[in-house]
Amino acid sequence: MAPGVIPRFTLPDALSFPVALRFPVDLSPPHVAALAAHAVVVLVVGVAVHRRARTSYEGPAGDAETAAELRGLRHRGVLVGAAVGALVTFRTGLARTAQAGAADALADATGAPTAGAVGGVLVAVAVYALPVVALAVVVRLATVPYRRAARGFRLRYRDAAAWELERDGVGLLGVLLAAGAIALVPAGWPRVLAAVGLGLVATALTPFALVVALQTRWPTDDERAAVGDVLPRGVHLRVVDDRTRLGSAVAAGFVPGAEYVFCTESLFAVLDDEELRAVVAHEVGHHEREHVLLRYSLVATAAGAALGVASVAPEVALGALVVGTAPAAVALAWVVRRTEEQADAYAAEAVSGAALASALETLAENRYVVEATGPSRLLSYHPPLGERITRLRGRPSG
Questions:
Q1: Whole-angstrom Cα distance, residue 255 to residue 207?
Q2: If residue 283 lies in a helix (H) or strand (E), which one and from where to where?
Q3: Residues in the chain, pLDDT under 50
């Protein structure tokens, strides 16, 4: 038997589709080394993030500054680790080997070359994505004790790990389904259009994915009564368990009748009724101004361009992705900050600018809102907190 080849296995004849499955697994030293390198990357990044988090927590900065540093540290840890992991996968050819092996195995098993090709793509995507999921879980867990202390989180390791795995699991499943569907489409502009169309569908289905990925519930009668007058017909409210996400609110979905506002339980605990209505009105403003669809369009444009380059010139796709990601991220963040200003204006008209400003101050005091500092402001999706509060207090009530 050839090294690294799992013996041929045939399903029982009693099944209606006897299929011979053969899974060639390349266990050559370079690929074993690549797997070990991924484990080392995850371990090193996790230890580095934990040590840096402890240093930040023990430093002279206040809780708000520490919380902001911890958030930035998590983002940087995942970004750097993912980049190194992707480089390891690319340079060692691990994804290409896995893709070829899976494609051959599935083609032999099913007798359908197309099924083999699609399966190979899915395996290649998974080889790139799974180390990132592991990295995200480890980085989140590395900062748990310091985030819990700095922000007053009711956060346990089990909750943090479960939430990260649920969120990343849903995201990974969506990526795999999209990759499989796109692989069925001819290369070139048809594939680009297919990717954009699938992204549009995914954006429309995001609220339902969040319901699955987050611990959410329908609001109680009292919670609904507190904000019901600022929720238009067709916009639904879901309340998120705040053990892993405190003080956040988000608008999701753009299809009429399937637009949602997600708010954490802590908002109902720390804000008064007027402040709460203003925060919910801000999220409704994103729906009323079509910001969800706008943001998708920007991401789809960038993703479509990247996919187009990959289809036409795959040899330069990775380099183009590395060079273009940072400018695209900065540009997207700038546009999103403008949409946040528009949503603030909507809330000021619907409730009052003073109420939203007061809500932001309360959330900041309780460290539920964390402001980006330094160069990371370029990637922040929210304008500086002080500027928002000053602008809102200068607006007349609606």
A1: 10
A2: helix 273-288
A3: 1-26
- pLDDT at 70 (0 to 100): 84
Of 218, 207, 386, 185, the closest CA to residue 304 belongs to 185
Instruction: Map out the domains of the chain as residue ranges.
Output: 1-153, 186-398
Nearest to 261 by CA among 378, 345, 347, 177: 347
Question: What pLDDT was estimated at residue 308?
Answer: 61
Q: Is 65 exposed, middle or buried (0-12, 13-18, 19+ CB in 10 A)?
A: middle
DSSP summary character for residue 61: S
Compute the distance between CA of residue 45 and CA of residue 132 in angstroms, rounded to an integer.
Answer: 12
Tokens describing residue 63: 């809780």
CB 110 within 8 A of CB 19: yes
What residue has token string 């909507």? 346
Alpha helices in 228-272 (DSSP H): 265-270
Residue 17 confidence (pLDDT): 36
Measure CA 388 to chain center.
25
Burial 233-255 (b: 16+ CB within 10 A, else e): eebebbbbbbbbbbbebbbbbbe
DSSP code of 164?
A: H
pLDDT for the residue numbered 274: 95
Dig out the tokens for 72 from the structure: 């930035």
Tell me the residue ranges of DSSP E strands in the chain.
9-10, 20-21, 216-217, 235-240, 249-252, 259-264
Q: Strands 216-217, 249-252: parallel, antiparallel or unpaired by DSSP?
A: unpaired
